[in-house]
């Protein structure tokens, strides 16, 4: 069924009995042209673009849990393209462009809300660094607007401008940035892929690879062996484990990132605000909750829950930036396991095993990258060559010294 | 979380800085014939197990000692801890 306002109206009149399940629940076939491991944002988008752009429809997405139960449904939904380094700039720009028409293309409302995203500066030097970053964004064709303190005060009057330690000197605004509904992104890609013939197979954990003479021929799963011409990994947080089954060791550590939401409030924060000094970022959801987050907990974790020191740290940073939120009550907090790479940038590449491809290392930023990541990963799997906007996300960049280190902190994943 | 520093006793985790995989304390020989590959692995590659992880902690807001701890990263439970300096002496 094609979704439309008319359908909503019609079903409203007929007791909502006309809605059908959004995707099929097929049993796995013996063999697929392409298997994608991981039914998160990147896996689902990859399957969709394989079918849609490359005509490869004999595809399965194998998901160990349920579709959308991973980080794609746990993030704080910020979508932006204000990175600074070669490699990242062109890729995130590409991804932001794909967001533009996503709801129409998928016939599924992903609730993209272009409310802008502001990065704050606390010193003249920082403002100059942001000006440089803005110029990089403009050169790439993305939006960037440098705000002085007066402009910032006009738009966002409730910030703590005169904090003695972190006074506000201005910021860099990208109006094209914003938020989207994370679950809808997973469900929209899942439904669109299913309609093009992709099999979405849930509760199917990959437990091993079949590799013959250096070439992958299939995977072992909790639902039996499944053969494949090519296999793509998109397992976020679990990349090291899955890659190890193919004998690969990665430049990745797994860390937990927490996020928080308050009770629903009246509209108050109409943009995405990012406070670099305390690493705190915040936006308001359509339901009214303030959605915010900060740093990762800082030590390797697969626990999918964080600890209290970071809760306290994030709350302190929030209070330092906007004391007015101090009376809001926190409703929930949660954590997700993320692949932190050694330079803080993602990896999308072939692997030393023929026919086996890798998408991962998304660190803090993999949600905004879902359309772009799926698009270029599908290109890589279909053609064997990296997409022109993703030529630098190579696995061997560490050996070549070609790291993409936005934070300039070196091989310390907990600091990126 | 608490970490039981051998010098100071059990202290809140906020007193410590995480310094990465314990393997980082074993700097390879830069003059070895395979040094380039060995250093690539040493600096960039990680086992990243979903179970027991051997790691370095620095008692920054305490005695200043470097510690080698084994921790279950699926539960955050510390299983053992000792001074990094006692490395050679340990059995
Ligand atoms: C708290 C938090 C806030 C975030 N905020 C933002 C943000 O504001 N903006 C942004 O851009 N990014 C953000 N991110 C990052 C973003 O959510 C992730 O980088 C991105 O979702 C990862 O890609 P994915 O959607 O494919 O991952 P996932 O949804 O995690 O998909 C991976 C899937 O692989 C499956 N899998 C794992 N192992 C196997 C196996 N052996 N067999 C089969 N399936 C397997 C998992 O079950 C999972 O469903 C945030 C992350 C967290 C945790
Ligand atoms: Zn101590």
Give a verbal description of the structure:
The complex is a heterodimer of chains A (416) and B (91). The model of chain A has no long low-confidence stretch (mean pLDDT 96). In chain A, strands 1, 2, 8, 9, 10, 11, 17 and 18 form an eight-stranded mixed sheet that branches. Chain A has an eight-stranded mixed sheet with strand order 5-6-4-13-14-15-12-16. Chain A is of the alpha/beta class and 416 residues long. Chain A has eleven helices and 18 strands. Chain A is globular, with a radius of gyration of 21 Å. Chain A folds into two domains: 223 residues, 3-Layer(bba) Sandwich (FAD/NAD(P)-binding domain); 148 residues, D-Amino Acid Oxidase, Chain A, domain 2 (2-Layer Sandwich), CATH 3.30.9. In chain A, a hairpin with a 2-residue loop joins strand 9 and strand 10. In chain B, a hairpin with a 3-residue loop joins strand 1 and strand 2. Chain B has one domain: Folate-binding fold (2-Layer Sandwich). The longest helix of chain B has 10 residues. A four-stranded antiparallel sheet of chain B has the order 3-4-5-6, with no helix packed on it. The mean pLDDT of chain B is 94. The two termini of chain B are 27 Å apart. Chain B is mostly beta strands and 91 residues long. At the A-B interface, strand 12 and strand 15 of A face strand 3 and helix 1 of B. The site of flavin-adenine dinucleotide has 40 residues of chain A, from helix 2, strand 12 and strand 16.
């Amino acid at each position: 069924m094609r979704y439309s306002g008319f359908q909503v109206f019609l079903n409203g009149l007929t007791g909502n009995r006309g809605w059908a399940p959004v995707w099929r629940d097929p049993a796995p076939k013996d063999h697929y042209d392409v298997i994608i491991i991981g039914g998160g944002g990147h896996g689902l988008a990859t399957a969709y673009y394989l079918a849609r752009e490359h005509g490869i429809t004999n595809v399965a997405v194998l998901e160990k849990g349920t579709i959308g139960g991973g980080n794609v449904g746990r993030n704080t939904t910020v979508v932006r393209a204000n990175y600074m380094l070669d490699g990242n700039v062109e890729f995130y720009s590409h991804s932001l462009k794909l967001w533009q028409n996503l709801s129409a293309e998928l016939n599924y409302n992903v609730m993209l809300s272009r409310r802008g995203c502001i990065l704050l500066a606390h010193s003249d030097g920082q403002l100059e660094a942001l000006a440089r970053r803005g110029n990089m964004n403009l050169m790439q064709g993305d939006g960037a607007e440098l705000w002085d303190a007066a402009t910032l005060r006009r738009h966002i009057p409730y910030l703590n401008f005169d904090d003695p330690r972190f006074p506000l000197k201005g910021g860099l605004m990208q109006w094209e940035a914003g938020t989207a509904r994370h679950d809808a992104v997973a469900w929209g890609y899942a439904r669109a892929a299913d309609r093009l013939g992709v099999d979405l197979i849930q509760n199917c954990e990959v437990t091993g690879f079949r590799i013959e003479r250096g070439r992958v021929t299939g995977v072992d799963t909790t639902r039996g062996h499944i053969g494949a011409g090519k296999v793509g990994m998109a397992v976020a947080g679990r990349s090291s484990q899955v890659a190890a089954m193919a004998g690969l060791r990665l430049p990745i550590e797994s860390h937990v990132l927490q996020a928080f939401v308050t009770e629903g409030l009246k509209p108050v924060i109409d943009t995405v605000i990012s406070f670099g000094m305390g690493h705190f970022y915040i936006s308001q959801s359509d339901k009214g909750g303030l959605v915010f987050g900060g740093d990762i907990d800082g030590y390797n974790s697969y626990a999918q829950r964080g600890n209290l020191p970071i809760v306290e740290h994030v709350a302190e940073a929030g209070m330092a930036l906007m004391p007015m939120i101090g009376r809001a009550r926190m409703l929930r907090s949660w954590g997700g396991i993320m692949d932190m790479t050694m330079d803080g940038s993602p990896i999308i590449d072939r692997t030393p095993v023929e026919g086996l491809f890798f998408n991962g290392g998304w660190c803090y930023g993999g949600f905004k990258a879902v359309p772009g990541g799926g698009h270029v990963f599908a290109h890589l799997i279909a053609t064997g060559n990296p997409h022109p906007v993703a030529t630098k996300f190579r696995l061997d960049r560490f050996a070549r010294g070609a790291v993409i280190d936005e934070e300039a902190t070196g091989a310390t994943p907990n600091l990126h | 979380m608490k970490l039981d520093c051998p010098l100071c006793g059990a202290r809140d985790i906020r007193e410590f800085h995480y310094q990465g995989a314990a393997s980082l304390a074993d700097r390879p020989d830069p003059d070895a014939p395979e040094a380039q590959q060995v250093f690539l692995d040493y600096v960039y590659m990680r086992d990243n197990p979903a179970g027991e992880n051997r790691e370095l902690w620095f008692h920054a807001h305490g005695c200043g000692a470097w510690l080698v701890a084994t921790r279950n990263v699926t539960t955050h439970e510390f299983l053992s801890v000792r001074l990094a300096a006692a490395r050679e002496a340990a059995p």
